[in-house]
Amino acid sequence: MKRKKIGRRLVNVLLFLLSIVYIIPVWMVFVNSVKRPAEANVMGVSFPSDGVIRLGNYLDVIEKGGIVRAFMNGLLEASLSVIIIIVTASACAFYIARVKSKISNGLFYMFIMGLVVPVAFIPTYLVLNVLHLLNTYTGIILIFTTYGLPMAVFLYTGFIKTVPRELDEAAFIDGCGPIRLFYQIIFPLLKPVTMTIFILSFIGAWNDVMIPMFFSNSGKWALPLTVYNFYGGYVKSWNYIFADIIITISPLLLVYIFAQKYVIAGMTAGAVKG
Description:
This protein starts with a helix and ends with a helix. By secondary structure, the protein is mainly α. The protein has helices at residues 2-32, 37-40, 56-64, 67-98, 102-116, 121-130, 137-160, 166-173, 178-186, 191-207, 210-215, 223-233, 238-273. The protein contains 13 helices and no strands. Helix 4 (67-98) runs antiparallel to helix 5 (102-116), helix 5 (102-116) packs across helix 7 and helix 8 packs across helix 9.
């Protein structure tokens, strides 16, 4: 018993030290975001030397950095892409999990390949150019959707395989068609993995800087790219850059803090049980 207690304490100490490695950079960014430019450029981890917390830095960033528009851009692009991913991936995974055929197996392995194949920027650019979708919200949303579908289909397929087929048979006996069966009976059972896919896809789309930078103009950039703009325009004012970083990561921190249990549950059910 004593050895177990000592072992647990050692693990707790190790986890505490590991958490410090992640907490200190976040703390450094926050504390420097409320300092004067000269003091923030030193990048220390202490409070402002004069004891003044300059929250006005955040107001300056919001006013000068186009934060509101960038926030709405990110919300629009991430939300719509996530909705499309959930609707299409869940339906596709239902077909793959329930129908045993060469077509369903081929679809599944095609999506699995999407997890390992790197992003092809040049072909994507050419396709968008032909479809006249460059510099459009539609083009960005479709790219986010395409890159989010493989993981979503993989998780949904594993989860749906754990749902008893007897539910399908009972629904068909009651006169339920395939579409009604899925959206009224099966889909409500997929809440854990749906929440996981929602969070992972939303965070991935929100944090992405390469896709908007390559395929759209600055008017359609989301919050992470405002940091890029601030670094170019305020390279000597790190307090503004740090304030912009805090504004950018705050929505994701709140989402993940309140929904992390769904991420763990969905990943376990979809990837392990399937």
